[in-house]
Amino acid sequence: MKPGDTLVVEARELDALLGALRERGHTLLGPTVRDGAIVLAEIGGAADLPAGWSDEQEGGRYRLQRRDDAAFFGYAVGPHSWKRYLHPPALVRWRARRNERGFVAEPDTAPPPRYAFVGVRPCDLAAILVQDRVFLGGPFVDPAYRSRRESAFLLAVSCGSPAGTCFCTSMGTGPKAGPGFDLALTELMGDGRHDLVVEVGTERGAEVAASVPHRPAEARDLYAARAVLAAAEGTMDHSLDTDGLKEILYRHYEDPRWDEVAKRCLACANCTMVCPTCFCATVEDETDLVGTATERRRIWDSCFSQEFSYIHGGSVRTSGGARYRQWITHKLATWHDQFGVSGCVGCGRCITWCPVGIDITAEARAVRQGEAQGSRP
Ligand code: SF4
Ligand code: SF4
């Protein structure tokens, strides 16, 4: 078996596939139902996956729903993304302890985690590649990200059940898993079958796939997999017109839309926390009460907080409108100049988890329409 091969594994063998990853020393992380949502957490095997569950999503709304079948992956992305494991929300950078001669720094000697990400959706796969550019692509490589990323096994799943807020098709990131996976599954259900069409992406993916019962994919299997993806595309009614969008946003640093969105935006930062590509962080120091030990942590931050843009004399972005403009312009315009790709992969999380349902596609459309109508510069 080799990269590029496609095979069929019966769905009942999914647990054997996950077991093969566990036997190779990976900690399994995958979707599971918790607190009324499908979140990412450590799982023991296929029994922990949200089989038979789906979700209903729209701006500011998320609900779990029961499916009428036992699909393992019949739902879209939840509030968590894989960045919480590659770029953790809080990460100790160093610790120091007082001794008789002063302070001694204590390096973190724990081995890096060796994860297997189970059920990586195409948009999230694209997001990992975006964060690779951020943390690995420039002159300053982030060692914590690199150590986690290098050992992570990516078991992707193409999307058959997009949510109402997904727009991966217009961003070119889904619903079929693109490059970067070790193995990619498409789940086939119905007519008495429950199978996984497995695409092999890497040598180590081939080695894992070869260890479970399988057969080569036939034309009818590939046709069925394509039909799943075509149906998914057909149900995705959200979209973002990216044509010329970067230039439009650059022409609209001043635009009445930013004041209008500021009336609704709570500056809660949910959108940046759930976004799989947002990477901004700050540092905080904590010293114990007796002054003998201290540690420095890197924690997620957000351009929606006033402190984020604080420089000598005060914050640069004091209004909600300025912060929303910063965020959407970075995502859809300046990110291209900075990293060569869009900062948005169309996962829809910022729409679903915005408490007031502010929709990045609607805001971009409003700015575009304002320009088209000639009412704005
Ligand atoms: S900006 Fe919104 S839709 Fe785009 S990747 Fe981030 S969370 Fe997903
Ligand atoms: S756009 Fe929505 S999620 Fe983002 S800060 Fe404003 S209210 Fe919060």
Summarize the structure.
The protein has helices at 14-23, 83-86, 122-136, 143-151, 168-171, 203-210, 219-235, 245-251, 256-262, 270-274, 320-339, 349-352, 360-372; strands at residues 6-10, 27-34, 37-42, 53-58, 61-66, 90-99, 102-106, 115-120, 153-157, 183-190, 193-200, 215-216, 281-287, 293-300, 310-311, 314-315. The protein has 377 residues and is α+β, with helices and mostly antiparallel strands.
With strands numbered from the N-terminus, the spatial order across the biggest sheet is 3-2-8-9-10-11-1-12
Q: Provide the β-strand percentage band.
A: 15-25%
Rg calculated over all Cα atoms: 22 Å
Largest sheet: 8 strands, mixed
Instruction: Return residue spans where pLDDT drops below 50 for at least 5 consecutive residues.
Output: none
The beta-strand count equals: 16
Rough shape? globular
The protein's oligomeric status is: single chain
- Ions, cofactors and other bound molecules: iron/sulfur cluster
Instruction: Please estimate the helix content.
Output: 25-40%
**Span between N and C termini?**
58 Å
The sequence of SSEs as H and E is EHEEEEHEEEHHEHEEHEHHHHEEEEHHH
- Output the structural class: alpha+beta
Overall residue-averaged pLDDT value: 96
Our count of helices gives: 13
